[in-house]
Design goal:
- There is one protein chain.
- The protein is of the alpha/beta class and 266 residues long.
- The protein has eleven helices and eleven strands.
- The chain has two domains: 166 residues, D-Maltodextrin-Binding Protein, domain 2 (3-Layer(aba) Sandwich), CATH 3.40.190; 82 residues, 3-Layer(aba) Sandwich (D-Maltodextrin-Binding Protein, domain 2), CATH 3.40.190.
- Helix 3 packs antiparallel against helix 10 and helix 6 crosses helix 11.
């Protein structure tokens, strides 16, 4: 066990960018896979994400350096410092740094979709949401406000935690991505309460230290990834990723508004 822990730590250390060594030779890429994959073993992450990273770095004749983030807080801290060249992050994280150090160059082809579901035939007293500042948390709060719900809201970590809380009647409703929500609804004990607004999903952000031409290169590279590279990347991300599109005009306004209303963004 100690050897395994040591080796995992060594692998992550090897993935971290060292300024003195990496300058000019590497393209540094940070990925936050979302709460559903935040506990992915380091070796599994590096193995699955490496083809994606290599395809992007190849546009500049560089080698990739991958960094795995395991929380939104740590990802935002790194983004604020502007320490990496590229980030691949959930939309709520991307919005937090729009108009600052980073620019979106491509997004996952599939939109983010989710549903607030409820137990059938019960009064809704509490609503379970995922990690604070996650897409399911932010968009559920936005929706509940517009539906004038007076139910108590609390946060857990993952969608699986929410499903368990509803099963045990700790929560009578919860915010889930559409895939899991529809699976639970099919069991017959749950029903749609409120659909969440569709928005852009995982987004590739490039540092503004890169030229517009280089940012365009990254977007084009992401949009032309081989299917097997996308399938490998999917193993590291909790949301559906079937490919990328270049969409610099993607509408993140509703996410930004939702973040502000939840007091996550000033």
């Amino acid at each position: 066990m100690q050897r395994r822990t040591f080796l995992s730590g060594l692998a992550l250390f090897a993935a971290l960018p060292l300024a003195a060594r990496a300058e000019g030779n590497y393209l540094t890429i940070g990925i936050y896979p979302g709460t559903g994959k935040a506990d992915i073993p380091t070796y599994d992450f590096l193995d699955a994400a490496r083809p994606f990273a290599q395809a992007l770095a190849a546009q500049f004749g560089r080698e990739p350096k991958l960094v795995l983030f395991r929380s939104i807080k740590n990802t935002l801290r790194s983004l604020d410092k502007g320490s990496l060249d590229i980030y691949f992050v959930p939309p709520t994280v991307a919005v937090s740094v729009l108009d600052r150090n980073y620019t979106p160059v491509a997004r996952a082809r599939d939109e983010a979709t989710g549903i607030l579901i409820r137990r059938k035939g019960v009064e809704i007293r509490t609503v379970a949401l995922t990690e604070k500042e996650s897409w399911l948390d932010v968009m559920a709060r936005y929706t509940l406000k517009r539906q004038k719900s007076d139910a108590e809201v609390f946060n857990l970590k993952t969608q699986e935690d929410i499903a368990l809380a509803m099963e045990r009647d700790i929560a009578q409703a919860g915010s889930l991505r559409s895939t899991l929500a529809n699976k639970l609804i099919a069991q017959g004990k749950y029903e749609v309460w409120h659909p969440l607004p569709n928005t852009p999903d995982f987004t590739l952000m490039a540092s503004n230290k890169l030229s517009p031409a280089d940012q365009d290169k990254l977007g084009a590279a992401a949009a032309s990834l081989r299917p097997e590279t996308v399938q490998s990347l999917q193993k590291t991300i909790h949301s559906k990723v079937t490919g990328f599109v270049v969409d610099k005009q993607a509408d993140y306004k509703i996410i930004k508004q939702a973040l502000k209303e939840a007091n996550y963004l000033k």
